[in-house]
Write a structure and sequence with these properties.
alpha/beta, TIM Barrel, 2 domains, 9-stranded mixed beta sheet, 8-stranded mixed beta sheet, 28 strands
Length: 552
């Protein structure tokens, strides 16, 4: 057997919990031999270890197609993701999932895609497609589909919904793990949810909730994305529960991905004094074992998927290897950019400011409304009373009190009337933001200080058949086009990150106080996350699972 290359480094063995100098022999993309040279690490050598795995991510939220996501992720030592394609599934159905599979084949990166379990997420919104139990069985014929993606319909699980139970039964028949999604579920409900087959949860936002789910056998994913950040709340569970903890990003915008990925969570956990092997078990080993990923773990015969770091404090990634191929070196990706198709589903027609008028029940100078309160770094919201002024028979934003107009425009049915409500927490002082990334059905979601600005921002998105737009009252406007299903760019990853940074900066110049305003905006239509959200059909109480009026 011809040898591809030899590498001398301190090899980190996650199974034996040892760090020893060794010469690693790679041949035909696999680890052919390991020759150890002693029992103590050599401080003059770098360190070789298995690559990092993002245990739950929606690649679409990076605004990049899979091959471009991989180009950026490998720089940070990520070699694999467990990827739920339900974003594009909600827009294009099975054809969207197949697009992700096809695009991923351009890269040596390990993408494990799931079969979306909840498309559409609810019946209380308009989506572009349905993925049925029959579709899921068809997807399970493909070995690239490794699991049943997050079962967001936890009420359906607990109440024995026939369609939900059929999908769970299919996953069991095809021996696929089942991902959970049950924010706030505790006690006996969590036990019943786990007993039905849900094996993970990435939605815990308190340690007590995570402990409830660990107690009933679930794996807990510590999430740190661009909007939802639960690392600080959960990381102290890692020392006691390292065998059932993983790291994930869930949703990560391209500017964040340029800066770091799972490597950043490893550094933060180590800085807290958590044992190196427990941290790396969460970052490298547990996802491979749980999802049975074909990812090498630096054993003889494994695929040569590994990384080389300079030291065990900073964890600066010097080299990333996939299947024996050097794919990143000293902060530079070595994977080539590809040519990307742009399938879409976009029927919305241009809107006018008058479309966003909301009349009071009776003549008044101001009226009480039920407003959404959003929170930086969280997907959950709350319901909060607010008083909004009435101008010319139209309820308008109260910018000084941070009560802005929020709207969802149906992108799948031309001419449908927008849903309109109010929101606090964005902090915009002028202008508006609009996005065709609106979890999970991906209608157009917009927030703004006045109806004219909202209409301008929405029309920029409609003209591009998808994108992120920011407009100011003084005429400023920026658009990041997203022609791939209205979710992703067809461009080169670093260029997309630069364009995203520009539109994000304009949003903050307009006054937004959020760390990631477009990411937060994208979750204001996610009805399965409580407490109050807005769909294209109206204001929705995610705890009672029913529509509620905007006017109090």
């Amino acid at each position: 057997m011809s040898v591809d290359f030899l590498l001398r480094a301190n090899l980190i063995d996650l199974f034996a919990r040892t760090i020893r100098p060794a010469t690693l022999q790679v041949a035909q993309g696999r680890v052919a031999a390991i020759a150890y040279e002693g029992d103590a690490a050599d401080p003059a050598l770098p360190y070789a270890l298995p690559g990092f795995v993002d245990a739950h991510v929606h690649v679409e939220s990076s605004l990049l197609v899979p091959a471009e996501f991989a180009r950026l992720a490998v720089v940070h030592g990520t070699v694999a993701t467990v990827s739920d394609p339900h974003e594009i599934g909600n827009v294009l159905g099975v054809a969207g999932v197949e697009f992700m599979l096809d695009n991923a084949r351009q890269s040596p990166f390990h993408f494990c895609f799931g079969a979306p379990s909840c498309v559409p997420a609810t019946t209380f919104e308009t989506a572009g497609a349905v993925i049925s139990a029959d579709d899921i069985e068809q997807l399970f014929q493909n070995p690239q589909i490794g699991y049943l993606a997050e079962m967001m319909n936890w009420p359906g699980v607990l109440h024995g919904d026939a369609d939900v139970l059929e999908k769970i039964a299919l996953a069991r028949r095809y021996n696929r793990p089942i991902d959970g999604h049950a924010p706030g579920l505790r006690g006996d409900d969590a036990r019943r949810y786990a007993a039905a087959g849900m094996s993970t949860d990435h939605e815990c936002f308190t340690a007590d909730e995570a402990l409830d789910k660990l107690a009933v056998g679930m794996h807990i994913l510590i999430r740190e994305g661009s909007a939802a950040r639960n690392f600080e709340a959960l990381v102290d569970l890692l020392p006691e529960h390292s065998e059932r903890i993983m790291f994930c990003s869930d949703d990560k915008h391209p500017d964040s991905l340029v800066l770091g990925h799972i490597d950043a969570l490893v550094r933060r956990a180590l800085a807290r004094g958590i044992d190196l092997f427990k941290v790396l078990r969460a970052a490298c080993l547990n996802p491979v074992l749980h999802y049975r990923l074909p990812v090498g773990l630096l054993r003889v015969g494994d695929a040569a998927d590994f990384i080389v770091v300079d030291n065990l404090r900073d964890f600066r990634v010097q080299h990333t290897y996939l299947r024996g191929q050097l794919v990143a070196e000293n902060g530079q990706t070595l994977l080539p950019a590809g040519r990307n198709l742009a399938p879409n589903n976009f029927q919305a027609r241009p809107v006018q400011a008058a479309d966003f008028r909301l009349a009071p029940a009776a003549a008044a100078a101001s009226v009480p409304v039920r407003a959404i309160r959003c929170y930086d770094g969280q997907l959950i919201t709350s319901a909060e009373p607010a008083q909004v002024p009435v101008h010319d028979g139209n309820l308008v934003a109260d910018v000084a009190a941070d009560v802005l107009k929020l709207t969802v425009v149906n992108r799948y049915e031309a001419g449908a009337a927008p849903a309109v409500a109010f929101i606090r927490g964005f902090g915009l002082q002028r202008g508006a933001l609009a996005s065709s990334v609106g979890h999970d059905s991906h209608n157009i979601t917009a927030v703004g200080c006045d109806d004219e600005s909202i209409a301008r921002a929405v029309n920029l998105v409609i003209a591009a058949r998808g994108g992120l737009a920011a407009v100011g009252a003084a005429g400023e406007e920026l658009l990041l086009p997203l022609p791939v299903a209205g979710l992703m760019s067809d461009g080169e990853g670093y260029a997309v990150a630069e364009a995203y940074t520009a539109v994000d900066q304009l949003a903050k110049q307009l006054g937004s106080i959020l760390a990631a305003p477009f990411m937060t905006l994208s979750f204001m239509a996610l009805l399965v996350i409580p407490a109050l959200k807005l769909s294209d059909k109206g204001l929705f109480d995610g705890e009672k699972f029913e529509f509620v009026p905007v006017l109090q």
